[in-house]
């Protein structure tokens, strides 16, 4: 069986908790990589939450999505992450950790990617330490997309090296950004999720 088919087969047997974790990482990655299309906005608008901080943020996100059209979502994404010269936020690990792009955190990530068998997507021009990319990588480690599911220790090592060290700050900035409306709620979701993952890994 080819590696990618084997990985998908393993993913089907993941514990429900891990499958939900991977789904959340993928969800964040998708919305941080590009603005939502109409189908995704509709799906988000149907989201329901619970009384947890994460659940309340998801409920708020759903309500905002119901009031947002594709053009407004696209403009918000552009203002936040692209801009004329640059967006309001620079969603890169190197920038958050050093104040500059293409610094040592990116080099370390590339080294760890090579060791874990994670190849750069040739279709993506962004540096690998873009927030969407590291969210996607974490999901792949959980599901076994790069071979077999990473052990909890391997997940923890990647998370602490390339996510928890800066992603919480990024999501907090996204919550408070001037251009954020729909994405402010996504920032709340991301911040709460990173806090949950940080606590869980600390207890492992």
Short description:
The protein is mainly α and 204 residues long.
Can you describe this structure?
- The protein has a single domain (about 5-204), classed as TorD-like, CATH 1.10.3480.10.
- It is about 65% helix and about 0% strand.
- It contains eleven helices and no strands.
- It has helices at about 5-10, 15-35, 40-45, 55-65, 70-80, 95-100, 105-115, 130-145, 150-160, 165-175, 180-204.
Distance between the termini: 33 Å
**Which strand-content bin applies to the residues?**
under 5%
Q: What is the number of strand segments?
A: 0
Q: Summarize model confidence as the mean pLDDT.
A: 93
Q: Write the H/E string, N to C.
A: HHHHHHHHHHH
- Please identify the structural class as seen in this structure: mainly alpha
- Percent range of helical residues: 55-70%
| CATH level 1 class label | Mainly Alpha
Integer-rounded radius of gyration: 17 Å
- Indicate the CATH topology: TorD-like
CATH architecture field: Orthogonal Bundle
- Quaternary state of the chains: single chain
Total of domains: 1
The main pleated sheet reads as: none
CATH superfamily: TorD-like
Flag low-confidence runs. 1-11
Number of helices: 11
List the main descriptive attributes of the protein structure presented here:
single chain; 204 residues; mainly alpha; TorD-like; 11 helices; 67% helix; globular; disordered N terminus
């Amino acid at each position: 069986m080819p590696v990618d088919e084997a990985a998908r087969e393993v993913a089907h047997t993941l514990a429900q908790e891990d499958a939900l974790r991977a789904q959340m990482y993928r969800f964040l990655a998708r919305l941080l990589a590009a603005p939502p299309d109409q189908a995704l906005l509709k799906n988000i608008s149907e989201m329901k939450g619970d009384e947890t901080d994460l659940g309340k943020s998801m409920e708020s996100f759903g309500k905002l999505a119901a009031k947002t059209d594709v053009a407004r979502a696209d403009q918000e994404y552009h203002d936040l992450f692209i801009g004329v010269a640059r967006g309001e936020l620079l969603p890169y690990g190197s920038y958050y950790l050093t104040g500059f792009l293409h610094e040592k955190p990116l080099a370390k990530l590339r080294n760890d990617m090579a060791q874990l068998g994670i190849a750069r997507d040739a279709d993506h021009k962004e540096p690998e330490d873009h927030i969407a990319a590291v969210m996607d990588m974490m999901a792949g480690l959980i599901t076994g997309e790069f071979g077999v599911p990473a052990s909890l220790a391997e997940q923890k090592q990647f998370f602490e090296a390339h996510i928890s060290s800066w992603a919480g700050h990024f999501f907090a900035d996204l919550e408070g950004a001037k251009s954020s409306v729909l994405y402010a709620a996504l920032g709340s979701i991301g911040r709460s999720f990173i806090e949950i993952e940080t606590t869980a890994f600390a207890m492992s």
